[in-house]
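Section 5.1 Outputs to date
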Amino acid sequence: MAADDGMVLAGHGRLAAGKLLGFTQVPVIVARGWTDQQKRAYVIADNRLTDASDWDDEMLRLELADLVEGGFEIALTGITEDELSRLSVGVGELEQMPELPDGDRSPFRDMTFILYGEQFGIVERAIAKATKPRDPDNPNRSPQGNALAAICAEYLGRVS
């Protein structure tokens, strides 16, 4: 959005990206006849929108889960691993585990670890690096679980 005098009111990042990509033209909404005060107030209000915004956690979880399932590199969204965990992205599908006959054990297992000090950061970084797009043939829909299994398999291959 730009004022009729050419002042950019909103979309500075998009304009910079367009310049980097060599665009010579971009679509613009022109705010005609605005006073200097109206322009300045709009710039402030536009920048404050993100500060005051709220997410619909359920809709965000569904959108992110679809991206993960489609193999999208979720880190590109800027959503942190802690936020993904809080939203149960990548593990929500485990709530729909199949019914098992009496006496049968589920192929899914939970493991809990206590990590001390820097251990948490090391494990978190390793899992983040080992996380790959979901393989549709893999029954485990947890990208973190699959990443940890891959790390362990590689380690065991080296020490065996």
